C-alpha cells in the first residue's frame, strides 16, 4: 500500500483548561476558534484533556466533503 503524505509543517496546540469532550466537533472547534484564536480547519492538531485528566482526545478528523479512502477490502 502506498501512502502519499503532505510535506507541510503541522503545528500542535494544547487547550490549557479542562474541556468537556462531549462537545463533539462543533463545540471543540468553537474552543479552538474562540479560546485559542486558531482556525480548526487549518490542518493543525489540537489537544484537549478532560477535567479529571483520565481522558485525552488524541485524534479525530471529519471531512467536510468526500470520504476517506477505503483501507480494507470490500469498501
Major sheet size, sense and barrel closure: 3 strands, mixed
Name the strands of the widest sheet in spatial order. Answer: 1-2-3
Helix content: 10-25%
Radius of gyration over C-alpha positions, nearest whole angstrom: 15 Å
- Approximately how much beta-strand content do the residues carry? 5-15%
Q: Which structural class should the secondary elements be placed in?
A: alpha+beta
Put simply, the count of helices is 1
Instruction: Provide the residue-averaged pLDDT.
Output: 78
Could you name the ranges where pLDDT drops below 50 across 5 or more consecutive residues?
A: none
Morphology = globular
Got a strand count?
Answer: 3
Straight-line N-to-C gap: 16 Å
H/E element sequence: EHEE
Total number of domains: 1
What does this structure look like?
With 75 residues, the chain is an alpha+beta fold. The chain has one domain (9-75). Helices cover 15% and strands 13% of the residues. It has a three-stranded mixed beta sheet, with no helix packed on it. Strand 1 (12-14), helix 1 (24-34) and strand 2 (45-49) form a beta-alpha-beta unit. It starts with 11 loop residues before the first strand and ends in an 18-residue tail after the last strand. The model has no long low-confidence stretch (mean pLDDT 78).
Please provide a brief summary of the model.
By secondary structure, the chain is of the alpha+beta class. The chain contains 1 helix and 3 strands; from the N terminus they run βαββ. 5% of the residues are buried.
Amino acid at each position: 500500500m502506498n501512502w502519499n503524505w503532505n510535506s507541510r509543517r503541522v503545528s500542535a496546540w494544547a487547550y490549557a483548561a479542562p474541556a468537556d469532550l462531549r462537545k463533539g466537533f462543533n463545540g471543540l472547534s468553537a474552543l479552538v476558534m474562540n479560546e485559542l484564536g486558531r482556525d480548526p480547519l487549518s490542518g493543525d492538531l489540537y489537544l484537549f484533556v478532560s477535567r479529571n485528566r483520565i481522558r485525552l482526545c488524541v485524534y479525530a478528523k471529519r471531512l467536510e466533503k468526500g470520504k476517506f479512502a477505503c483501507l480494507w477490502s470490500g469498501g
